[in-house]
Amino acid sequence: MGCRGSKVPEKIVLYYDKRSAPCRTVLLTAASLNIKVELKEINIQKGEHMTPEFLKINPQHCIPTMQDGDFTLWESRAIAQYLVNQYASNDSLYPREPKRRALVDARLNFDQGCLYQRLLNFYFKLFSEKVKDDELIKKFLEAIELLNTFLEGKLWAAGDTMTIADFALAASVSTAECFDFVDLDKYPHVNKWLARCKGNMKGYEEANQDGINALKETIANFK
Amino acid sequence: MAGILFSPDWICCSAEPNMPIDFYYIPGSAPCRAVLLAAKAVGVELNLKLTDLMAGEHLKPEFIKLNPQHCVPTIDDNGFALWESRAICTYLANQYGGNESLYPKDPKKRAVVDSRLYFDQGTLYQRFAEYYYPVMFGGAPFDEAKLKKLEEAYEYLDKFLDGQDWAAGSEMTLADISLASSVSTAEVNINRLEFRTRFSNKYIAGCWFRSVQIRKCHQLAEKVQEHSAWLR
């Protein structure tokens, strides 16, 4: 399967918000594959995801949502998997060998189910109730601690090469930079790995850092 | 290992594992049951290792060595350790699956299965857990707002199932296995008549689940019932 090495599409369309970590996962993936992205901003706070047009595209009205010709797909990590399966000329970003692939899948699930979920939990409480919940922050840091353990003695999160798992985890972990109460210095493997991501991921500034900066601004405005 | 096939696009191993795969689980857990169902569908034997979380068996040093996140389900396939239920399901299909329809190789078809698996983890099962775990583990009262969020997730699943038999297309896939485990857990655990009226009968998702039970997958249904019965 996959790594068809099909010719990259002229462009894909991405409904997104740059502040959103899952959206940045897709941007990082597309940048690595040299896939041009036509960006369409959807501001959830303004209800732009609930227009009849967008609901027709995605009844779950979530972002990121990708359109590749007449093929529509959502769930950021599935989009990342798809782009590599369909368009990559080699499989380093998402290995074909089942055990190596399984490790990437496991880390993607860890990102969604544990690390990013816990970030969402404390962020949502901060945003909607203006409450800094120390218990929720502690749970998030436990997830970072787990990632720190996974990264011990390793260069990348899911094997010997940079993979889409690193894109997803980097997008999530770097989001913690927006909060001064999250101190990543305590997690040396995570710190080194994140620096490695920033230095090696193609288009990191535009695909990820710009969104982090925009999110910092949003957070500053609702304090 | 016998019978390794090489294809230009995909390295796949259709042989059996050397020895049954060790499977650390508890039957009440929906993600664990998804792996049981997937293994059954792929035709791989699991060596069941009941891991009593309440008794702290997951915190034993041997288990933490295998899995520092000490969660279930976890497999040990002859030295290859893996956790996260949906990654285990896709691994079993990728490594041992002969039936391609369960986890298609075509990138677009596969992408839809992957998308539904993330919907299960991030939305459907997530909202069930948020609604039910505080009650089951924390003694909290039921929260109507959280039930509404779960109901919304059912509405999404309904829309995905509209006009097709299975969650990711015209054939049963790993997505149905994962989603059916979640849905069956919600149905069994949430014993309120209101829930049954609101969910099971109202939504196509209820019909889909019943069709899973009635129509195509007796083995699937048996396993679901068998393990759901543990909860009653």
From TrEMBL, chain B:
GO terms for molecular function: glutathione transferase activity. One of its GO terms (biological process) is glutathione metabolic process. Homodimer. CDD domains: GST_C_Delta_Epsilon (cd03177), GST_N_Delta_Epsilon (cd03045). Pfam families: GST_C (PF00043), GST_N (PF02798). Residues 19-100 form the GST N-terminal domain. InterPro entries: Glutathione-S-Trfase_C-like, Glutathione-S-Trfase_C_sf, Glutathione_S-Trfase, Glutathione_S-Trfase_N, GST_C, Thioredoxin-like_sf. This is Glutathione transferase. Belongs to the GST superfamily. It comes from the Eukaryota. Gene3D superfamilies: 1.20.1050.10, Glutaredoxin (3.40.30.10). Residues 106-232 form the GST C-terminal domain.
